[in-house]
Write a structure and sequence with these properties.
The chain is of the alpha/beta class and about 375 residues long. It folds into two domains: about 20-300, Alpha/Beta hydrolase fold, catalytic domain (Rossmann fold, 3-Layer(aba) Sandwich), CATH 3.40.50.1820; about 310-375, no CATH class. It has helices at about 1-15, 90-95, 125-140, 155-170, 190-195, 200-205, 210-215, 250-270, 285-300; strands at about 25-30, 50-55, 70, 100-105, 150-155, 175-180, 230-235, 275-280, 310-315, 320-325, 325-330, 340-345, 350-360, 365-375. An eight-stranded mixed sheet has the order 1-2-4-3-5-6-7-8, sandwiched between helices. Strands 9, 10, 11, 12, 13 and 14 form a six-stranded antiparallel sheet that branches.
Length: about 375
C-alpha cells in the first residue's frame, strides 16, 4: 500500500511539474568570409563580433531532433532585435513555437557577397550564413534532417535575405517568408532608394547596367523559378499610417514602395508554379506590424509538408559554389560573370552559361564539365 501511495504521489508531482520553458542563448562565431572588425554594427556600442541568438523551444532536450527557423533582421537592426521585447519580442509572439529559432547577425550587409569592384567579398555574407553558420547550427544542435523542417524568414532587408537564401538552398529550406521585404531589387527606383540607407548600391551589387547579371542573381523576383518547390509566405503593408504614426514618414514611404516589391515577387512566383500565400494588409514599416506578421506566419505553419526531392527543377545562380538540390557545384578558375542555369528534367541534367565547373551528385562521383552541357543521369 505504501509503495502504491508513493508511486501515485511521484506521478502526480511529475504531471504537475512545468515543462522547461524556452531559453535564449547567444553564440559568438567566427568566419573566413566576414571580418567583424571591418563592420558597422547597428544599435548601442557592442563588441566587434559575429553573434547569433538562438531561442531553444519549450521542453528542449538534445536527446531528440527539432525543426529550425532562421529569422533574419532588417537594415538598422542586429542579431538581438527579434528577441528584444521592445522590437520583435519573439519569445512572446512565438510562444509555444515547436522548433529552434536562429537569429544571426547581418549588420547592414544585405545578405550578399558584396560586389566590391568584382571581388565579391569584404564582406561575403552569403558564404558566412550558408557555408559556415548553417553547418555550425547542425553540429551544435540536433536538427531534423528533412527539408520540411527547415524554414527561413525575415523583415525588410531580412525578407530579401530569406527569399534569396531559400532560392540558393532550395533542397534545404522547405518554407520561406518575407515581411515587408525588399524582394524586387531591380525595380527602377530601387538603386536610388537603396542609397538612402547608408550603403552604395554599386558597392553591394555593382552597377545596375554593367553588372546586371549580379543584380539578377540576387533578386528574389528574378530567381522565383528556384522556389518552385518551396512553400512561400509574403506579407506587406500599404504604407497608410494611423494618426498615431503620422510622424513616421519613412515607415510610410518605405512600405508603400515595398508593397510593389511584394506584388512583383508574388506574380513571378505564381507564374513559376510556386505555392505562395500572399497577405497584403494595412500598415507601415515598423515593428508593431512585423510582430503581427511573424505571429500570422507561425499560424500559417513553417513546417508543413514540402516536396523532398523533385525530379524536375530549375536553379539559377551567380555563385562561385553552392548546392542545387544536393548537387554541389564549384566553378573552376573564376566565378560566373553571367547568370548560370542548372536544371533537371527527369533523367537529364543540364547546365547553361559558360565556364568550367566541378559537380558532386547527391549519390555519385565528382565530375568536371564545361558549360553548356547536358548529361544523362
Amino acid at each position: 500500500m505504501r509503495r502504491a501511495l508513493l508511486s501515485g504521489l511521484l506521478a502526480l508531482l511529475t504531471a504537475a511539474a512545468p515543462a522547461h520553458a524556452s531559453q535564449l542563448v547567444t553564440w559568438t562565431t567566427t568566419s573566413r568570409y566576414v571580418d567583424p572588425a571591418q563592420l558597422d554594427f547597428n544599435g548601442p556600442p557592442r563588441p566587434k563580433a559575429l553573434r547569433v541568438n538562438v531561442l531553444l523551444p519549450d521542453g528542449y532536450t538534445p536527446s531528440r531532433r527539432w525543426p529550425v527557423l532562421y529569422l533574419l533582421h532588417g537594415h538598422g537592426d542586429a542579431y538581438d532585435s527579434w528577441a528584444d521585447p521592445k522590437n520583435g519580442d519573439v519569445a512572446r509572439v512565438a510562444r509555444g513555437f515547436p522548433g529552434v529559432v536562429v537569429m544571426p547577425e547581418g549588420a547592414r550587409g544585405w545578405y550578399v557577397n558584396w560586389w566590391r569592384g568584382g571581388r565579391r567579398a569584404g564582406p561575403a555574407w552569403e558564404r558566412y550564413h550558408l557555408d559556415e553558420l548553417i553547418p555550425l547550427v547542425e553540429r551544435r544542435l540536433p536538427i531534423l534532417r528533412a527539408r520540411r523542417w527547415h524554414a527561413i524568414a525575415g523583415l525588410s532587408m531580412g525578407g530579401e535575405g530569406a527569399l534569396f537564401y531559400a532560392s540558393q538552398r532550395p533542397g534545404y529550406f522547405g518554407s520561406a517568408a518575407s515581411f515587408s521585404g525588399a524582394i524586387s531589387i531591380q525595380r527602377p527606383e530601387w538603386p536610388s532608394g537603396f542609397d538612402t540607407q547608408g550603403e552604395r548600391h554599386d558597392d553591394v551589387f555593382g552597377d545596375p547596367d554593367a553588372q546586371r547579371f549580379y543584380w539578377t542573381g540576387h533578386n528574389p523576383t528574378a530567381l522565383a523559378a528556384n522556389l518552385r518547390w518551396t512553400r512561400l509566405y509574403v506579407t506587406v503593408g500599404d504604407g497608410m499610417a494611423k494618426p498615431s504614426e503620422a510622424q513616421n514618414v519613412f515607415g510610410q514611404v518605405a512600405e508603400f514602395d515595398l508593397h510593389q516589391h511584394a506584388e512583383d515577387f508574388t506574380a513571378a512566383a505564381r507564374e513559376a508554379g510556386a505555392d505562395v500565400t500572399y497577405v497584403p494588409r494595412d500598415g507601415i514599416h515598423d515593428w508593431p506590424y512585423w510582430r503581427e506578421h511573424l505571429a500570422a506566419a507561425v499560424r500559417w505553419g513553417f513546417f508543413a509538408p514540402a516536396r523532398e526531392s523533385p525530379s524536375d527543377w530549375t536553379y539559377e545562380t551567380v555563385a562561385a559554389k553552392g548546392d542545387a538540390w544536393g548537387w554541389r557545384f564549384e566553378f573552376q578558375r573564376r566565378a560566373p560573370d553571367e547568370v548560370i542555369t542548372f536544371s533537371r528534367h527527369g533523367g537529364m541534367l543540364r547546365g547553361d552559361g559558360s565556364g568550367r565547373v566541378a559537380i558532386k551528385p547527391p549519390h555519385g562521383r565528382l565530375f568536371v564539365v564545361r558549360l553548356p552541357f547536358a548529361r544523362r543521369l
